[in-house]
Amino acid sequence: MKLNQLAWRNIWRRKRRTLITAFSIGFGVFLSVTFTGSGDYTYTNMIDMGASMGMGHVTVQPVGYHLKPTLDKRVKDSATLHQEIMALPGVAGATVRITGQAMFASARKSVGGAFIAVDPAFETKDNNLLLASMIEGSLFTEKAGRGIVIGSKLAKKLKVRIGKKIVYTTTDAHGEIVSNIARISGIFTTGIDMVDGVMALLPIASVQKTLSYAADEATLIAVVIKDQRHAEAMRDQIAILPGAKHVDVLTWKKSQPDLAGVIAFDKAGNYISQLLVGMLIAVGILNTMLMSVLERTREFGVMMAVGMSPKVLFKLVMVESFWLTVVGLILGIVITAPWYYFLYNTGIDFSGAFGSDFSYGGVLVDPVFKARLFKESVMAILGGLFTLALLAGLYPAWRAGRIPPVESLKTI
Question: pTM value?
Answer without folding.
Answer: 0.83
